[in-house]
Amino acid sequence: MKKIKPSCENEMVYEFLKMEITSERYVKQIESIMENRCIERTIISNGNILSCEENALRAEVLGDFRGYNRNEGIFENFPAKIDWVWTVFNKDDITKIVYIEYSYWNELSNYTGSPLEAAKTILSGKTVYDVPNDGFINIYNKLKNGVSFPPLIMLTDVAESRYILLEGHARMTGYCIDPDLFTEVPVLLGYCEPSELQKWYGEMPKRATMGDMKKPFVISISSPSGGGKTTITTSLKDQFANSIVIYWDDYGDEVDPNCDINDVKDYNEWNTEPVAADVKRLLNEPYDYILLDYPFGYLNDCVGKLIDLTVFIDTPLDVALARRIRRDYTNRSKESDFGLGYVGEVNLKTIDEELFLYLTSSRPTYMYFSESHMQASDLVVDGTKSLDEIVSEILSYIRIREEAST
What we know:
By secondary structure, the chain is an alpha/beta fold.
């Protein structure tokens, strides 16, 4: 970091508004504030920081917009004495830059506050709170093509222990997708006392889990055979950093009932003791979530009493049947069609037997299965939606449950 010249708080207010009014997210809000106050937009687009009148008006606009001088919003506990300096930052400074403490940035950065970590999340394809990552990618592409962006605004202490973003979070994230682009970047930097900086920033909270649970939270994903529960469960695991999956198919014949499964109406007839034993073992290990790719949800008492949340994927039986046929009787790869993998070559006789069995005995079993789960699940999701839509809906529901429990 290199210091260029001194600045002042009036210039910070001016630059803050000048940057925010170009944002599609905030422009209408700022324009509405200015219209209500009968203030011309030129005091932001082409203002004069030597004008006391303009400085007072801009302070009022920033007060209405973000709580400036009112101890509200982003300016709650904002340091009273700050020495502002124009600086230039480079790649070597990135590791000390952190976001403000805010739920979205916390999640995006995996509770580190680091834009570098947020960039890893974005590049992995994960999203937070259903907010698309397109904006960050667009910023990155513009930077890569030589487009210049407005300065960033940050605060630090006299020891420069860290640089906390006040304005420019999205732009900073775009830079971190390729840190080599972070070269000679103008930053309006404010210096204050360490205690004042800490009071404004606060503390980074721990990652929220279900009510600060003392044990892993157990989530069961159920569906008819071919309904997508394995693919969905695996995708959910990718969204939870500290989780593990139990797959029903791994237990093979040891869990089958001692009769024709089409005759089973009581799901307690299935031998789920091996599954329950594994869940109990994992409950004593340091996971946040245990995900069950498991057909019965709460309907089997042995495992059901260990489950905290059940999700049923309501896939129409004809769709599930078609997926099973494509999965079990074609040579489609795992990358094709909803993750359904190779089992065997096409065999028309075997397919005919499968369809005959479905029509004569299996279909009523599947209908009863779906009806039972629709009534006994915490969340029912439409299985005809895309994989991303299903995972997003489940994550949103989990987040609502988390917020309700804290």
